[in-house]
Amino acid sequence: MISGALHVAVNEINANPDLLPNHRLNYIFDNTCGKERQSTQYFMDHWKMGARVFIGPEMNCRTEATMAAAQNLPIISYKCKDQTVSDKKK
User: Fold this and answer.
1) Strand pairing partners for 53?
2) Helix crossing, 36-48 with 62-70: angle to 10°?
3) For residues 2 and 28, what is the distance between their CA atoms, to the nearest angstrom?
4) CA–CA separation, 39 vs 62, rounded Å?
5) How many helices and strands, by DSSP H and E, does the chain display?
6) pLDDT, average across residues 21-47
7) In the chain, where the domains are located
8) What is the distance, to the nearest Å, from the Cα of residue 19 to the centroid of all Cα atoms in its chain?
9) Which is higher by pLDDT, 83 or 40?
């Protein structure tokens, strides 16, 4: 599960003052269970709390990708099946 790897990576980065001096990474993990409506709600909640990067969601991600693009925020989704969000020509 990606959340376990993310936890380890964030802890290691935060423990090394040479990697990101004067910065600290934080993350929030929510399981959307592949439900687009839940994913969209989490996206909005985290955006309102000041999230600057989004990792996920799974499967459907067109709505979240559009919302991230509108705010000029990066989104990384390794399991998104929607080809239209990967088309750099659009």
Assistant:
1) none
2) 20
3) 12
4) 11
5) 3, 2
6) 88
7) 32-85
8) 21
9) 40
Predicted model pTM: 0.73
Strands, DSSP E only, in the chain? 54-55, 75-76
Please give the single-letter amino acid code of residue 80: C
| Higher per-residue pLDDT: 60 or 42 | 42
37-40: long-range pairs with CB below 8 Å, 24+:
39/63, 39/64, 40/64, 40/67
Compute and round to an integer the Cα radius of gyration of the chain: 14
Residue with tokens 């909640």: 45
Q: In the predicted model, is pLDDT for residue 1 greater than 70?
A: no
Residues 6+ apart with CB under 8 A from 33: none
- Phi, psi dihedral angles at 47 (to 5 degrees): -60, -45
